[in-house]
Amino acid sequence: MKRSSLWGWLWVLLGAVYFLLPLYGTFDFSLRAQRGKLSFTAYQSALTDPEFLRTFAFSFRMAVFTIILSILLIVPTAYWVHLRLRRLRPVVEFITLLPFVVPGIILVFGTIKLYSKPITLFGFTLLPALTNTHATTDILLVAGYSVLALPYMYRAVDTGLRTIDVRTLTEAAQSLGAGWGTILWRIILPNLRTALLSGALITFATVIGELTLATFLARPAFGPYLALLGNHKTYEPSALAIISFVITWAAMGVIQYISRGNPSQIAGGR
Amino acid sequence: MAFLELTHINKTFNQTTAVHDFNLAIEGGEFVSFLGPSGCGKTTTLRMVAGFEQPTSGRIVMDGVEITNTAPNQRNIGMVFQSYALFPNMKVADNIGFGLMVAGKPSSEIKKRVAEMLSLIKLEQLGDRYPFQLSGGQQQRVALARALAIRPQLLLLDEPLSALDAKIRVSLRNEIRAIQRQLGITTIYVTHDQEEALSLSDRVVVMNHSLIEQVGTPFEIYNFPKTAFVASFVGTLNSLPAEVLDAATGLLRVDGQEIHTTQPLKAAKNGDKITLALRPELFRLNRTAVGENQLSGRVENILFLGAIVRIQVRLRETLLAMDTFNNPHLALPSLGEEVTVSFSPEACLVLDTK
Q: How far apart are CA B140 and CA B80, in angstroms?
């Protein structure tokens, strides 16, 4: 074996140890709920807790709405920036990075301050208070999640758009009689399939684990449940962390499978 | 009234003029090429016809209807792009049927038309393939079929062969012309390749620096260029600096040697400096007929170009290129040999006077 090859394998091994050792430690710890023997008791306890299912189902629903809202907002925006407003790309990129700069606590307090009372103009109510009912608070939550997911979703869509010749494909579709709706639905979205899946997965992961917005908007989300569990139980949080890893890896596997041989990612449409 | 009329078309981007006072009338069924170097305005003009760019001023009328401000998806104009622009997520058949699907045609009609188009481009077996599974030439044929499937009133081709290798380019250009003749569709073809423009077109529009330099048949453009640019851009050309000795009789001096031209010398006076243009294929080596011009020089280089052999002859200062057909019995001069090149007085084109 060549010396350079050995050196390469050493780094791979070090990397694997760095990533897998903590995971193994967490997994091992999650199996020690019963003294003196390894068992899945912590998993059983976590998964049979009705709060687990209730909060996970709630966050799952919020994640789906967030993904839909993010796609509806970001795909047309990124498409238009690529097609007509290339000079504005740095500005839009800067805006999409703001959630990294503005802390979640500021976002949620700003949201509560602005939307907890009706928005009026010359005595007319433009928007009623949105924090008065669960349904309208969920709207605020989804909007907040969409802001938090903005950097990830925008980057995923932007990268996807860079792999296709947006302008020429648009013009080709226009010359064949297609309007904007048809172009977005039939040409652009299908060619962003892999990018949207990646963005959706990251958005899902962000929403499922989010703590601040859900806590201050007082909604029964999975993030606050996990935090609460960590305060009261010992082994169950480790079991849930391992379950989260499995779900994430399964989702990545699904993406890999779906994007396998995806023509738009191979030919790039150029 | 012509089928397509472009009247006083101007286009500026910020402060830059891309197209200046473009006027052209194209008859139905005609194949017209826009020929010129990069940045001359040919693609911008085509994009204005397609509707992707709005003219700053001027009118575009197609089949008696003004379309200057009509949206591109309302024009019924088919377009083929240099980069093929096939939809990567759709199979070949779906690409070809896309325009018909958008128009809301029934699926039976779409299927029939797609089969017709696949047959037209001789790719009947490839309807189920994705674009990335096809060669460049096949992709461009699919792009052509897709543009024609909607039965457009006008077909636009924007450098469709530029991304292909030389051999495919020649065969596909012949195919494009045959299909265009078969369907009788009015076509505008943008290219910077003079050979493509000359071999395909009924008429060629030569453009330079946002302006039309000349419009004419390929024969006119090649043999009777109206400007120095057309003469130099289309085909190979020898530019010879000359001095007018007798404007009345067309007597000129080139590198100390006297020749005659029958071309009008316009407003040139005796002693004026002018530029002559001579095609390399109009010279003959060491064979002078009565009344022909002769120039003596020394062979500097001999280039084999396949069917043609180019001999470069140095006069005193000027380097002259002459072409002769290659054949196995061709007797070529040796390098450094003193030779005489001759040509008829009609062959000397007078490009400008200084």
A: 8
Nearest to A176 by CA among B181, B23, B47, B143: B143
Q: Report the candidate in B87, B221, B223 with the shortest Cα–Cα distance to residue B143.
A: B87
Q: How far apart are CA A257 and CA A261, in angstroms?
A: 9
In CATH, the architecture of A39-259 is Orthogonal Bundle (1.10)
Are B310 and B321 a contacting pair, CB within 8 Å?
yes
Query: What ipTM was assigned to the predicted interfaces of this complex?
Result: 0.84
Q: What is the mean pLDDT of residues B197-219?
A: 94
Q: What confidence category does residue B352 fall into, taking pLDDT thresholds of 50, 70 and 90? A: low
Interface test with B, best of A163, A175, A258 (most B CBs within 10 A): A175
Q: Are A210 and A224 in contact (CB under 8 A)?
A: no
Give CA–CA dist A139/A130, Å, rounded.
Answer: 8
Task: State yes or no: pLDDT of B353 exceeds 70.
Answer: no
Interchain CB distance below 8 Å, B88 and A177:
no
If DSSP states are collapsed to H, E and C, what string results for chain A?
CCHHHHHHHHHHHHHHHHHHHHHHHHHHHHCCCCCCCCCCHHHHHHHHCHHHHHHHHHHHHHHHHHHHHHHHHHHHHHHHHHHCCHHHHHHHHHHHHHHHHCCHHHHHHHHHHHHCCCEEECCEEEECCCCCCHHHHHHHHHHHHHHHHHHHHHHHHHHHHHCCCHHHHHHHHHHCCCCHHHHHHHHHHHHCHHHHHHHHHHHHHHHHHCCHHHHHCCCCCHHHHHHHHHHHCCCHHHHHHHHHHHHHHHHHHHHHHHCCCCHHHHHCCC
What per-residue confidence (pLDDT) applies to B354?
45
Whether residue B214 has pLDDT greater than 70: yes
Tell me which of B132, B139, B146, B153 to substitute to probe the interface with A (most A C-beta atoms closer than 10 Å): B132
B88 interfaces chain A, CB cutoff of 8 Å: yes
Judged by CB atoms closer than 8 Å, whether chains meet at B73 and A177 is answered as yes
List the structure tokens of B326: 């290659």
In this prediction, residue B323 carries a pLDDT of: 92
Calpha distance B305→B326 (Å, rounded): 9
Match 């048949």 to its residue by tokens.
B217
Among B186, B213, B221, smallest CA distance to B42 is for: B213
pLDDT in tens, A92-140: 999 999 998 888 899 999 989 888 888 888 888 888 888 888 888 999 9
| Residue A16 neighbours by CB distance under 10 Å | 10
Tell me how far apart the alpha carbons of residues B172 and B160 are, in angstroms, rounded to a whole number. 10
CB < 8 Å from A in window 135-194 of B: 143, 146-147, 150, 156
Domain ranges in chain A? 39-259
| Partner-chain contact A172 B81, CB within 8 Å | yes
Are B28 and B200 in contact, with CB atoms under 8 Å apart? no
A231 has a pLDDT exceeding 60: yes
Cβ-contact B241, B254 below 8 angstroms: yes
Per the prediction, chain A carries an average pLDDT of: 87
pTM: 0.81
CA distance B318 to B239: 9
Is 80 exceeded by the pLDDT of residue A260? no
Nearest CA in chain A to B143: A172
Quick one: CA torsion of B173, B179, B183, B184, rounded to 10 degrees? 30
